[in-house]
């Protein structure tokens, strides 16, 4: 997969391609909140995926306080990255997933770097992310971008200051 990473706000144009990547290259629990539905990518889970993303079409000012972006390489959707307002002023929480075929190529770091730029552009000062100690890929990306990492058992909290230069 070659080309520059760019982010597009998730909307009706890219929602179905995003769902297609999720179905083909990710597990439901990795890309959306848990749903009371049959296992796998059942019709109910696909509808819940659509609803989950549509709920955030309003972006940071909207009711969910969340801006979701499709991650694109060229014209191909390869995953999603989001930022969600936190209670602390100037702080958003980041989350991301990539389809299996897009992992291990530096795309996660590039997408998160773009998200940091987007967060700074709307006046944010801090981006936090949570993962597990087992998620080596996420930890590598977070460290590469200068995150301060705090471990608490299997839970890891990372904090990136947008007021200092990024790697």
TrEMBL record:
Keyword Hydrolase among UniProt keywords: no
Keywords from the named record: Acyltransferase, Transferase
Domain N-acetyltransferase: 5-163
The keyword Ubl conjugation appears for this protein: no
PROSITE patterns, alphabetized: GNAT
SUPFAM superfamilies cross-referenced by the UniProt entry: Acyl-CoA N-acyltransferases (Nat)
InterPro entries: Acyl_CoA_acyltransferase, Bact_Acetyltransf, GNAT_dom
Name of the protein in its database record: GNAT family N-acetyltransferase
Organism ancestry: Bacteria, Bacillati, Actinomycetota, Actinomycetes, Micromonosporales
């Amino acid at each position: 997969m070659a080309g520059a990473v760019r982010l597009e706000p998730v909307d009706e144009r890219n929602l179905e391609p995003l769902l297609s990547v999720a179905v083909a290259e990710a597990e439901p629990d990795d890309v959306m909140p848990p749903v009371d539905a049959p296992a796998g990518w059942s019709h109910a889970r696909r509808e819940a995926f659509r609803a989950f993303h549509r709920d955030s079409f309003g972006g940071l000012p909207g009711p969910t306080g969340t801006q979701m972006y499709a991650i694109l390489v060229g014209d191909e959707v390869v995953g999603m990255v989001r930022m969600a307002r936190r209670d602390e002023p100037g702080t958003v929480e980041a989350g991301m997933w990539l389809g299996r075929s897009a992992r291990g190529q530096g795309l996660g770091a590039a997408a998160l770097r773009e998200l940091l730029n987007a967060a700074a552009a709307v006046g944010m000062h801090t981006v936090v992310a949570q993962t597990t100690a087992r998620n080596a890929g996420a930890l590598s990306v977070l460290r590469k971008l200068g995150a301060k990492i705090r471990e608490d058992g299997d839970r890891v909290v990372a904090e990136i200051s947008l007021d200092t230069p990024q790697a």
